[in-house]
Amino acid sequence: MRQAPGPLAVHPEAGCVYFAERETGAVHRTALASDGLLAQDTAPEQLPGFTAPHCTGIAVHPRGTYLYASTALTLAVTELSPRTGHPSGRPVTLPLPRRRP
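Request: output the structure for the sequence above.
Response:
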């Protein structure tokens, strides 16, 4: 890994971890070994078109069907294959709702 990982989330059914690079916001998927540690025989793969610069949090939907990554102003969402954890749709970036004082 060239960048230090920022926020991360585990997808237990798919056996993988997602993380965002702190500076670039590129979101990656990497496999977990059977002992629950990061697999050492495969390199992390960048999810195409899915970025969250200066990511503040990343989460997997409880059903494993969506991946969310937030910044201070936006929420990026992509659909996932629940069994493999691979993206199955195009990422969408939405503005976060403004809080009322």
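The chain has no helices and eight strands.
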